Amino acid sequence: MRIVLVGPPGAGKGTQAAFLAENLSIPHISTGDIFRANISQGTELGRQAQEYMRAGQLVPDEVTIGMAKDRMAEQDATDGFLLDGFPRNIAQAEALDRILDENGQKLDAVLDLEVPEEEVVKRIAGRRICRSDSSHVFHAEYSAPKTEGVCDVCGGELYQRDDDREETVRKRLAVYHSETEPIIDHYKRQDLVTTISALGKVGEVTERAMNALRQSDSVAE
């Protein structure tokens, strides 16, 4: 199976991608992971990406596309993959179409995780991270610490990252609507899109997604 997972920031794409990839026995290919791998391995594409990032510039589509193409060509992705964070815009979606066509392959499904905008803001802006250990994550409403501003695990100070501030979240959503959301219509024209509510418990969302794939005949019973 070859699947694209799309949705706004805060929709839980990374979490769902990991569960779905495990259930389907296909690799989870995230943009963040392929960037880190190329940079750590010192590939030519990784060096190019790092130069742009150090200059505070966006990495050009052709570099991102090149990394994704190389990753999809690896042995573990021969029989399928789940893409998370790629494609991010129409140019990348069209490039993915070409790559698959050249290899005699096709996408099986595009899962669109849907979350109301105010819920996205609440999810992200409420997040609090421990300064002593960033793996200790709390939420002002959903998983509040026993003592406000103090990590339950180690007693470290909890803080709100700049990326999680409401004004930043709304800017990220605006970018999503203008750049990424159009790929949904691109794939609707190919009759590939299924919209899934990303509200509720993680397992519930995963089951909705698996049911949608079964109903589309992408997954055998």
Describe the structure.
The protein starts with a strand and ends in a 6-residue tail after the last helix. Helix content is 47%, strand content 14%. The strands form 2 sheets. A 5-stranded parallel β-sheet has the order 2-3-1-4-8, sandwiched between helices. The chain is globular, with a radius of gyration of 18 Å. By secondary structure, it is α/β, with parallel strands linked by helices. It contains 9 helices and 8 strands. Helix 4 (61-72) runs parallel beside helix 5 (90-102).
Q: Descriptors for this entry?
A:
three-stranded antiparallel β-sheet; five-stranded parallel β-sheet; 9 helices; 221 residues; 8 strands; 14% strand; alpha/beta; 47% helix
Q: How many distinct beta strands? A: 8
Largest sheet: 5 strands, parallel
**Uncertain regions: pLDDT < 50 for 5+ in a row?**
none
Helical proportion, percent range: 40-55%
Alpha-beta classification: alpha/beta
Instruction: Give helix and strand order, one letter per element, not per position.
Output: EHEHHHEHEHEEEHHEH
Quaternary structure: single chain
